[in-house]
Design brief:
By secondary structure, this protein is mostly helical. It is 74% helix and 0% strand.
Length: 174
């Protein structure tokens, strides 16, 4: 009973730390000038496709069935893939923040108020932040040897943000 309580408390502390780091990262300013020239044209669905399989169980099951593959090797592989996945998450978060910031800057420079777009930006930021927190929670569970992480929602949020930036430049009917 006490071991279960200790394990639960440890998981909650790890999740809390992940949230603090995530909010710190989201709160930092994004420098649009540091972005590559073609950052807006890159297709996020293609760029982030490896994330979908990076933590999938099929590879681990296959390797576990192979002779000579030790549990220690599988643990190291899982840890390395989590590290790579977090790197992808960082890039995805930076891309989202760039698009979000560019859209906000566009709204500030507009001669016409766009409360609809401002509300949509707020909604998208909330959805994306929740998706990142959910991904961090899945990563904490993955340490214990459980399942993959659905990343399609995060990629869909980035796509929506890019569409908003593109449509923001279109004139609005009076």
């Amino acid at each position: 009973m006490s071991a279960l309580l200790l394990a639960s408390a440890s998981v909650l502390v790890l999740i809390g730390l992940a949230f603090v780091l995530l909010f710190r990262r989201l709160g930092s300013q994004v420098d649009l000038n540091r972005a590559p020239e073609n950052w807006l044209e890159e297709a996020p669905a293609i760029k982030y496709r490896p994330m979908e399989r990076l933590l999938a169980d099929a590879d681990y099951r296959f390797l576990a069935s192979c002779a000579g593959v030790s549990p220690a090797l599988l643990r190291r592989m899982r840890a390395e893939r989590r590290r790579l996945f977090r790197s992808y998450l960082r890039c995805l978060s930076e891309d989202f923040s760039r698009v979000h910031t560019a859209t906000r800057l566009f709204l500030l420079s507009c001669d016409r108020d766009r409360p609809d777009l401002a509300l949509e930006l707020l909604r998208q930021r909330a959805i994306f932040t929740c998706g990142l927190m959910l991904a961090e929670l899945h990563l904490a569970v993955h340490v214990m040897g459980l399942g993959g992480i659905p990343v399609y929602r995060l990629i869909r949020s980035l796509n929506s943000a890019r569409q908003n930036l593109t449509s923001a430049a279109l004139p609005v009917a009076a």
